[in-house]
Amino acid sequence: MGTEETGWESRHAPEESSDADLVRAVGAGDRAALRELFQRHEPWLATRLGRRCADPAMVDTAIQETFLTVWRKPSGWRGEGEVAAWLWGIAVRSLLHQLRPRASVVDRLRGLRGSPMASAEEEVLARVEHSDVGLAFARLSPELQAVVQATVLDGLTTREAAALLGIPSGTVKSRMSRARSELREAML
């Protein structure tokens, strides 16, 4: 013999081995068996996948994924049925996986959550807005509303509200005092 043979090729002639023998050899880590399996099945897989998808790159990727799956998990074929049917199932799933766009995990989780839930604070504010207090607040002048919004609803200190509104701290205090008086009168 002029060339050195190793592995599966030295033990088996390709025409003697069944697909099942080849898958078992792949399970034992035999790359030559995988190569033989590829040479036997790639042509018809490419033809059949090509009838379902016009993009040759996607077909090639599906075939590559198919034989990577065979290499990584040859035990996926349980010894029942035809190896060709098992390969076809892997190839079709690989192709479909490429054709179906996948939403990000965050988008899928948002979809499960449904409509965004209002926080407790938002629920209270919604109730206040439509109550007698909310109606009285709506009747306040915009300057008084801004001070109440900043100090009561937003929880800012007098100094922070003054900085936010661009007015002196004393003005914040006087407007808040006036807003309290007007709200008290409106609630009677």
From TrEMBL:
The keyword Ribosomal protein does not apply. InterPro entries: RNA_pol_sigma-70-like, RNA_pol_sigma-70_dom, RNA_pol_sigma70_r2, RNA_pol_sigma70_r4_t2, RNA_pol_sigma_r2, RNA_pol_sigma_r3/r4-like, WH-like_DNA-bd_sf. It comes from the Bacteria. It comes from Nocardioides seonyuensis. Residues 135-183 form the RNA polymerase sigma factor 70 region 4 type domain. Gene3D superfamilies: 1.10.1740.10, Winged helix-like DNA-binding domain superfamily/Winged helix DNA-binding domain. The keyword Transit peptide does not apply. This is RNA polymerase sigma factor. Residues 1-20 are annotated as: Disordered. One of its GO terms (biological process) is DNA-templated transcription initiation. GO terms for molecular function: DNA binding; sigma factor activity. Keywords: Sigma factor, Transcription, Transcription regulation. Residues 37-102 form the RNA polymerase sigma-70 region domain. Belongs to the sigma-70 factor family. ECF subfamily.
